[in-house]
UniProtKB/TrEMBL annotation:
This is Nucleoside diphosphate kinase. Homotetramer. Belongs to the NDK family. Transmembrane segments: none annotated. The lineage of its organism: Bacteria, Bacillati, Actinomycetota, Actinomycetes, Propionibacteriales. It comes from Microlunatus endophyticus. It holds the Pfam family NDK. The active site is at H120. Its cofactor is Mg(2+). One of its GO terms (cellular component) is cytoplasm. SUPFAM superfamilies: Nucleoside diphosphate kinase, NDK.
Length: 141
């Protein structure tokens, strides 16, 4: 994608967001920013899907508890579209560790954890393409 063209990013509202009743509040932030929702579905993530989604992390020591967490209840999977959507979503999400994330970001405002940090956003165009194909293959044709 060009620096200014419409771009798509994969977003996951993790089980803590659903459990805490924050789905509406978090979706509102993406919508208010101007990102367009092009796909959205409630999903119970399986261990197999978790391993594929987090393929780069499966050998890290933080992965087993992350896998338990991400499969602990339903998540909301979505794809958003807009100008520089990948970088914009990462900015809205904030730093990985909610304790260090800046106020005004999702994690900075709602999370006190480096694991239960509410939201995932693709980190590059390559990751976005891979993740959209994994979660919403019908969009990748
Ligand atoms: N040190 C850690 N301890 C516990 N969980 C972690 C740690 N690092 C990352 N995680 C979890 O793994 C997810 C993926 O990690 P990473 O890709 O580094 O962060 P991000 O989601 O910001 O791209 C994080 O969002 C978080 O839920
Ligand atoms: Mg990441």
């Amino acid at each position: 994608m060009s620096a200014t063209g419409a771009e798509r990013s994969f977003v996951l509202l993790k089980p803590d967001a659903v459990r805490r009743g924050l789905v509406g509040a978090l979706l509102s932030r993406f919508e208010a920013k101007g990102l367009r929702i092009v796909a959205l579905e409630l999903r119970q993530v399986t261990g197999e899907l978790a391993d594929e989604h987090y393929a780069e992390h499966v050998n890290r020591n933080f992965y087993p508890p992350l896998r338990t967490f991400i499969t602990s209840g339903p998540s909301i999977a979505l794809v958003v579209e807009g100008d520089q959507a990948i970088e914009v979503v990462r900015g809205l999400n904030g730093a990985t560790d909610g304790r260090k994330a800046a106020p005004g970001t999702i994690r900075g405002d709602y999370s006190l954890s480096n694991r239960e940090n509410l939201v995932h956003g693709s980190d590059s165009p390559e990751s976005a393409a891979r993740e959209i194909k994994l979660w919403f293959p019908e969009l990748s044709d």
